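Re: [ENG-882] Designed sequences occasionally contain unexpected residues at chain ends

Forwarding the minimal case from QA. C-alpha cells:
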C-alpha cells in the first residue's frame, strides 16, 4: 500500500490501470502524462520486453491537497493487456492503492472484459486484497466506436457492485481525468 517519504513529506500512492488488451489503458496514461504540469511529474517509463509492455510515471497533483501535512504523489501504472502475461499483471498489483478498470465498449470485446475482470479479482486474491475495500472505478472506453454495448449492458456484465463508472473516449481525453480524479480522491480519503 502507500509509502511515506518523511524526507520529502510525501505519501506515495500507486494506481493501476487494468483491463483488456488494446482497451485504452496506455492511451489513458499517455493522455494524462501529456496534460500534467511538467514541473510536477516524473519521466514516463516503458518497461518493454519482446512480448509485453508496462508504462508508468509519477506526478504530484496540486488540487488534491495534503494528508496530515504530507503531499500525495501518485504513481500510475498499466498492466500488460493480455491475460497471458498474468505473472506481470499480478506483480504490478502488489501494493496497489487504487484501480481503474478500463473496459472496451465494443460488443465484440464483451467476453474479454469479463475475463479481464475475473483475472483482476483472482490476482488481488493472491495478495489477500479485497476489491470491495480498494478505491476502484470502471471506465467504459471507446464510446465513439460503432457497435458498442450500452452502459447498462456493461454495468450488468462487469459492474455488479455499482462502483463509480465513467464513459470515455481516451484518445480524445474524454472521461480520462474524471476517472483518475475519482480514484485519486478515493485513495486520499482512504488515507485520511
Amino acid at each position: 500500500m502507500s509509502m511515506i517519504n518523511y524526507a520529502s513529506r510525501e505519501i506515495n500512492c500507486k494506481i493501476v490501470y487494468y483491463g483488456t488488451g488494446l482497451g485504452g489503458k496506455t492511451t489513458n496514461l499517455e493522455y494524462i502524462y501529456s496534460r500534467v504540469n511538467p514541473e510536477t511529474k516524473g519521466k514516463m517509463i516503458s518497461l518493454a520486453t519482446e512480448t509485453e509492455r508496462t508504462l508508468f510515471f509519477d506526478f504530484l497533483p496540486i488540487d488534491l491537497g495534503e494528508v496530515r501535512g504530507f503531499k500525495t504523489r501518485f504513481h500510475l501504472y498499466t498492466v500488460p493487456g493480455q491475460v497471458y502475461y498474468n505473472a506481470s499483471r499480478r506483480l504490478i498489483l502488489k501494493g496497489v492503492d487504487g484501480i481503474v478498470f478500463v473496459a472496451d465498449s465494443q460488443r465484440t470485446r464483451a467476453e474479454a472484459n469479463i475475463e479481464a475482470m475475473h483475472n483482476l479479482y483472482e490476482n488481488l486474491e493472491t495478495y489477500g486484497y479485497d476489491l470491495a475495500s480498494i478505491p476502484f472505478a470502471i471506465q467504459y472506453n471507446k464510446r465513439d466506436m460503432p457497435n458498442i454495448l450500452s452502459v447498462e449492458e456493461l454495468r450488468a456484465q462487469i459492474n455488479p457492485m455499482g462502483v463509480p463508472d465513467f464513459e470515455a473516449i481516451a484518445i480524445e481525453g474524454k472521461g480520462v481525468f474524471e476517472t483518475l480524479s475519482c480514484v485519486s480522491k478515493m485513495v486520499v480519503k482512504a488515507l485520511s
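QA comment: On inspection the terminal residues look reasonable. The mean pLDDT is 91. Proposing we downgrade this to a documentation issue.
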